[in-house]
Amino acid sequence: MSPAYAPRSDEDVLALVDAYPLAWVVPLQADAPATPLPLLAERGGNGGIASLFGHLARNNPLVAGLQTAPRALLLFQGPQGYIPPRLVSNPTWGPTWNYAVARFHVRIEFVPDETDDALERLARHLEAGRADPWTVDRMGTRYAQLRERIIAFRAHVERTHATFKLGQDEAPGTFAEIVGGHHDPELREWMLRMRGD
Asked: Whole-prediction pTM value?
């Protein structure tokens, strides 16, 4: 990976996970299918992401697999998109794909006593900023029935690798043309955030 594509700080990786919380949970040794799940970042003492917190359906084969072999890879996909040459005035410039991703090698720990917390925290995160945020208590008695079908887990981070390929290495004029002409506002916003000039 080019050093130009490295996150500037732990804050960049945290921002990606917060904005795009759906991750693929890929077991490294267990014979179980990868599963997409929304996960919440938990900071460590150094400010970086120390763990990721979520829940799984108890009948998902991933639960039994990770109880036996708890190592997994978590894959987060942030903003991404094709950058066509028509946006750039330089006729020799070729197309590319910009993206931001984060990969975490983790050890999974199931924490059934924290299942309520996992659901409540996820709802708060996803409902943040809404005029009338939804809360789990709105489910009434149905909540207790559904709660028994899931289990909370914490994914303890062992290694992190993030790539933010967002045009940082483009010439200033080319970068301005891409940002000025690209149709995706989220991709443009992240390009500007990572460029920082």
From this structure: 0.93
Q: Which residue has the tokens 């990770």?
A: 66
Measured at the alpha carbon of residue 190, what is the angle toward residues 102 and 46, in degrees to the nearest 5?
50
Q: What is the bridge-based pairing of β-strands 35-38 and 22-27? A: antiparallel
The whole-angstrom separation of Cα 102 and Cα 161 is 6
CA distances, 121 to each of 54, 63, 117, 140, 183 (Å): 9, 21, 6, 18, 33
CATH number of 3-195: 2.30.110.10
Is residue 167 within 8 Å of 98, Cβ to Cβ?
Answer: yes
Strand partners, 110: 153
Q: Which of 43, 34, 38, 35 is CA-nearest to residue 21?
A: 38
Q: Is 74:38 a contact under the CB 8 Å cutoff?
A: no
Beta strands in 94-141 (DSSP E): 96-110
Q: How does pLDDT run across 16-61, given as a tens digit for each residue?
A: 999 999 999 999 998 899 999 999 999 998 889 999 999 999 999 9
